[in-house]
Design a protein that fits this description.
Rossmann fold; eight-stranded mixed sheet; 8 strands; Alpha/beta hydrolase; BD-FAE-like_dom; alpha/beta; 37% helix; 8 helices; AB_hydrolase_fold; 270 residues
């Protein structure tokens, strides 16, 4: 009996010691624009980074918040904290203060900042993933499929390890259509649609949506169309995950699967 008690005491101490080994810190309101930016850009274009203070080469996930490109705020989802990841929550400018094209450039600048500074926060520059919900997922797809946005920052979108958007708009975003005087229920595909930029050589893409019968407008079908077109052009690493029973606000059931998919993709590269 004494040996059993000692064993459990030892096990408990070991667990406490392990828990204390990895600590995390959050640095907030880091600007990713330079001094020539407008006052509005300096106010909005900031990011927060949650990272482990020990160890090296942790996968990085960049999270763009939702809000229709007209609102919202930068966030680091609680579920992603202390999962062995460097998590970056990005803020960006909003319509109608700026055009949708400008917001996409913000997303590219933020991603560029992370790609160039990941090592400072114990991140693995070879395993940087982009994610985000709704409008955030749209931004993730746009800066990956249309390589010109990151090229303007001196980077190659194909260096990203994977794109995992949550319920992203894949046709022209409704806010971009509004800029053109087009109703949100009138679907269009132009240069501001991820579908317009489908390409064979894009990084791995995993599309998350809510239930096709509960999602916002045709959001499931948009993602299914993108998946189909990726297959047609010969893109090899993509899939669509539908969270049945969940509507457009399917962030939580998606977050555990996001972590699982990041770990899988990292392991596949080893």
């Amino acid at each position: 009996m004494r040996h059993i008690i000692l064993f459990f005491i030892w096990l408990g101490i070991g667990q406490i010691s392990y828990a204390q080994e990895v600590r995390y810190e959050t640095v907030e309101n880091i600007s990713y624009v330079d001094e020539t930016a407008s006052a509005y850009a300096k106010e909005q274009c900031k990011l927060d980074i949650h990272y482990p203070t020990s160890g090296e080469n942790n996968p990085v996930v960049i999270w763009f918040h939702g809000g229709g490109l007209t609102g919202g705020k930068k966030e680091i989802p609680d579920f992603l904290k202390e999962k062995g990841l460097v998590v970056v929550g990005v803020g960006y400018r909003f319509s109608p203060n700026v055009k949708v094209e400008d917001i996409i450039h913000d997303a590219a600048k933020a991603t560029s900042f992370v790609m160039k500074n990941a090592r400072k926060y114990r991140g693995d520059v070879d395993n940087i993933f982009i994610s985000g919900h709704s409008a955030g997922g749209y931004l993730a797809l746009m800066i990956t499929l249309n390589k010109t946005y990151l090229e303007a920052e001196g980077l190659d979108a194909d260096e990203l390890a994977g794109i995992i958007p949550f319920s992203a708009q894949t046709i022209t975003h409704f806010t971009a259509r509004k800029e053109q005087g087009i109703d949100e229920k009138q679907p269009t595909i132009d240069e501001l649609a991820p579908l317009f930029w489908v390409r064979k050589d894009a990084p791995p893409i995993i599309l998350f949506t809510g239930d096709r019968e509960l999602e916002l407008l045709g959001r499931y079908e948009e993602n299914a169309y993108l998946k189909r077109m990726l297959s047609i052009v010969g893109h090899e690493k993509h899939k669509l995950v539908e969270f049945q029973g969940y509507d457009h606000g399917m962030v939580y059931p998606g977050l555990p699967i996001l972590v699982k998919e990041i770990n899988r993709l990292v392991k596949e590269k080893e």
